Amino acid sequence: MKKLLQYLLVLFLVSSTLHATVEEYQQMQKELNEQFNQQMQEAIKANISTVSKEVQEIYKAIGYKPVWVTKESLSANAAMLMGEIEDDLANGALLELKKPFEALKKAQEALSTDPSLEKKLQIEFAMMQLYTDHIHAILKGSDSLLTPEILLQESLKEGSLVHGFNAVSKLRTAKRTPTLEENETILGTEIVLDENLTKALTEGSDKERLKTMYRLLNYQPVWISEKGYSEYTKELFRVIEADPVFDHSGPTYREFQTLKSLPLPQEKKEIVRREFEIAKLYQDYMGYLLYGAIDWKKFKRALRKTHKHGAWDVHNVLLSPELLLVESVQQKTLKHAFEKVKPKYPGYDRLVKALQKYKKIADAGGWPKLPDFKDLKPGMRSSVVPLLRERLRIEGDYIPCDGVDANSTKYDNCLLKAVKKFQARHGLEAEGYIGKKTRRALAETARHKYVRLRLSIARLKWLKRDTNRYHVVVNIPDFMVTVYDGWEPIEKMRVVTGRKGHETPIFYNKVKLLVLNPYWRIPPSIIRHETLPKLKRDPGYTNKKHIEIHTGYSEHSPRVNPYKVNWHKYGKRLPPYKFMQSPGDFNALGRVKFLFPNSYSVYMHDTPEKALFARDIRAFSHGCVRLHRPIDMLKTFSEIDSRVDFEKAEKILQDTKKTPVRLSKSVPIDIIYISAWVDKDGEVQFREDIYGYDELHMKTAKWLPSAEEKAPVSSDANATKT
């Protein structure tokens, strides 16, 4: 009964609250900046002669629009540019940008005390020059036809600088690649791979990377000499053979088996030929370790067709087999490459072990398919119970108890313990009641779970790699957010994410600003369908609901008296006013929000709808991430950043004054989609593919599961019975 009442409350909360679309929030943000952008455009035109000719041409090409600053602060583009340059510098590349980068960081800090249009214009121009210098530094020495102007235009068209940076990722990686000293030897062999010999044995466009690699190695052999295979080769062969994730039926593994079975060559030319053959094997295998099996272009095309609001930003991996080999030679061991290529995300090694477990189960035939059966409670009898025991035993949840007949049809306490463990591992309420959602989870095959684990490993390879100490990670299928310190969790809590049709975008950014006592700008659809009808009946409605009416989106714009407006003349045509809910516990954004600049207009925030956090599947928002314990998150940020004074913040939250708090150092945030992983206790966790992204990735990956491996589909993502 308690659960039913809880469910009815959730239904009431969801159905009684009108929801806006993602486009509306993006349009509101655009309108908020419109007047400011017009002022900036005029200022840019008036002062364009003060910048370099190239920057002038770029602004002319984009209609003199501001790129790097917004009405409130720096734009998402600015945050990304500064982050990418910082990443390059941290990896020892493009060091000529260090001074202008540091100078601009100091200038940006001054924005918090002087947010004038003049100051923002200075920042805008300085950012554009830094962007231009950054791209030129990347392109220097290449024959690329790309320019800062072309890349920026394409990025603005795509809505993110990710597009432009991905276009030059190979060149950026090359800038990070070290070179060997002229007198630095690798194997000490008499064999020299001169340029002509290298060219003769590496003909073909697919072998251009081999030529590049040996130029970096000063044309020295790495893999073989007159004495036999080097330690680098032995390590490569050992790792390939022991890799539990690598497809042993694929061409690269067959290539490895062939090379391993061949006798050692004796003649110089054959030794050189073998050198190149092993080098190609290394490149193919290391490429697989770096990039995985996901075809991102194909996936994104499919995503646009199937998910109107779906978005998945991918930052190209800024590593290469060539870079890793040169570094390994300098370190005197190939173990360096294998360690560096491995994703740093916690639990990666545990995930690999889980993959081995499920592959073994799947190869042995999996578990028995359960017939259709009705809901089961502990103590009930059913002919499905013996099969259920066997099903759970094979996956490792059921451990036989003394004195229990394996063929008994009674749902006993021993089975209850196993069912609860299974439910907990699948994100369901661990109560032992077997309902619709538990039956659906039980129906998933071992092979399909194995494929999902492979997908998780492949996706982790593409998480943006940075050198920051702190990270915030929101995992959508798990409906949880975790804050890490050196990849050790220091805070974890439940979240509500976007529902189907309003999917929370998957991307990387950095939390830069916290807002205490935020305003909520009310979208047009809610004004039209909820606010206006009630204002027509009662002009005092907005006052009762703590809604302010302004002439503009800023809370500092003139207020409008609702009693002095004839609301009846508005209907399909909206009034020329902006509605916003004032700060307070009743506010739709709650008491605090955490901002990270992005083109999707999403952020993390508090919410008054606390009952939604009791649900197993919490996909209810229009795209933003709602926090279960926002004050605890605020406290965690105060422990990370001394600029966030928690005691002072608590006092501010007792009042209703909007107060922004800018972090001294931004904190990376990853919104990810991992539906299968292993927790710190070694338990393999699975969650429902709430957006259907797992199935879409399986259809577009370079490897495909068979048709019978398709996961059971929920007809009701928010079904109540576990």
From TrEMBL:
Active site: 605, 624
GO biological process terms held by the UniProt record: cell wall organization; peptidoglycan biosynthetic process; regulation of cell shape
One GO MF term attached to the UniProt entry: transferase activity
Cell wall biogenesis/degradation as UniProt keyword: yes
Domain L,D-TPase catalytic residue range list: 470-664
InterPro entries: LD-transpeptidase_YkuD-like, LD_TPept_cat_dom, LD_TPept_scaffold_dom, Peptidoglycan-bd-like, PGBD-like_sf, PGBDSf, Transpep_catalytic_dom
Coiled-coil residue windows: none
Family: Belongs to the YkuD family.
PANTHER family registered for this protein in UniProt: BLR7131 PROTEIN, L,D-TRANSPEPTIDASE HI_1667-RELATED
Protein name (record): L,D-TPase catalytic domain-containing protein
